[in-house]
Design goal:
Helix content is about 5%, strand content about 60%. By secondary structure, the chain is an all-beta fold. It has one domain: Immunoglobulin-like. The strands form three sheets. It has a five-stranded mixed β-sheet with strand order 3-11-10-6-7, with no helix packed on it. A hairpin with a 5-residue loop joins strand 6 and strand 7.
Length: about 150
Amino acid sequence: MKLLLAAPCNLALQDPVVGHSLIGVFHEIKIQVPHDAPEIPGDAMLPKEWAIFSKFGLEPSEEDKDYTLKTDIFWPDGKVLASHILDAMPPTKNGMAFIAKSQAFPMGQQGVVRIRESLTSEGKVVFGPIEMEVKVSVERSLPSIKENK
């Protein structure tokens, strides 16, 4: 088994004919807020859909088995933000892919959001952990709405 791709992105599309499309792959997010905005709580989330796409290539002996991908997302302070557990569709000679979707993006803590994934089969880790990072920064640079009037 080998990891072909693992990436956080704005959107991951799955097409049974063409394959997968990743839109807006990222490694850093900059969020702009008005310079006079109130303090942002440490657990603040920005309502923004995003996804983590992972694709694995399989050896013939690894096909037709049950696989589960566990994805953990951590705040910059190390606390768990979210966890996803996804079961694979029956893998084939083309391998298998997972799309872990989230409806909000963490913005309450500046720093590195860590993503860790492990692939299991029959209760045992067969690949991983895989680690990814997304740097998050909040910039206070936008004028407030009052200043625009």
